[in-house]
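Quick log. Single chain, no ligands specified.
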Amino acid sequence: QVQLVESGGGLVQPGGSLRLSCAASGSLSSINAMGWYRQAPGKQRELVAAISWGGNTNYAGSVKGRFTISRDNAKNTVYLQMTSLKPEDTAVYYCYAGPSIWDVGPKDSWGQGTQVTVSS
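-> predicted structure:
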């Protein structure tokens, strides 16, 4: 099993920045990718960004150019640097770890979620 611990959410004004972190532990041999999904009230969960251990990335179109995903393989940790935040970025952000940067399924592990609120 894989355990994921997220940190870094909070309240920020529009145009501001936040950095999310997600540290993985446990049985990591099956993991090739880590990333973030988000879910706003009344909306479906959507991919934000994901990165493979080899460095390949996948971003949602709505965050390209504003968010950057990176990873520290030695620490089994993934970071999501979010800049130029907009109110529509408000959501619960969930870290995941699993086989693919392109989609998620039953083999993925999930964090507990961290709230990001963008509001003046």
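The chain has a mean pLDDT of 95.
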